[in-house]
Predict the 3D structure of the following.
Amino acid sequence: MSIFDIFDRINKNKAPEPSGPVEFIIAGLGNPGAQYENTRHNAGYMAVDTLAEKYDLSIKKLKFKSLTADCVIGGKRCHVMKPTTFMNNSGEAVVEAMNFYKIPAENVIICYDDISLEPGNIRIRRKGSDGGHNGIKSIIYLTGSQDFPRVKIGVGAKPSKDYDLAAWVLGNFPKEDIPKMHEAADNACQAVELIVKGETDKAMNLFN
């Protein structure tokens, strides 16, 4: 086999290069920096990183106050984002991308942590309020819409009512929860793919 045959075989197995207009934005929320890497608040980052592995993406291009990459899911070009604004200002990044690509809220999928769900569980919603989540609050405030689908990723509730919420979400997962979070990230990716393909009901039936 010649070197040209090898390159031809490699190229045939590569994912198609994204072309045409961006139709969906997929944003995983979290905080940038190694110190936050395995914290509960970075569950959204984890989901997007898992998506990157699946689609052989390098989410490194700095754009819209985010680390970004494009991929094709179900024939649709998607702009994948990890906002670097820190959680409470996530809306700054998302609204910039929405305005640039002229994407409606219905085509903006947000993945993020949820303390009301047990670790490993996920829940899909078509739209809704911020539920006390500062990242979602920022997105709603700056986009002026609640109509974006979201994939909530369970990280578990605080151990007690008086436990500091910031300390909890910025804390690391215990060892026993790590496999559950890997499974949750995989399921979140499946849910995102179904939403992009217009099968939100199927995603909700599978994972809610």
Remarks:
- The helical segments are 3-13, 43-54, 90-101, 134-143, 165-169, 178-196, 200-207.
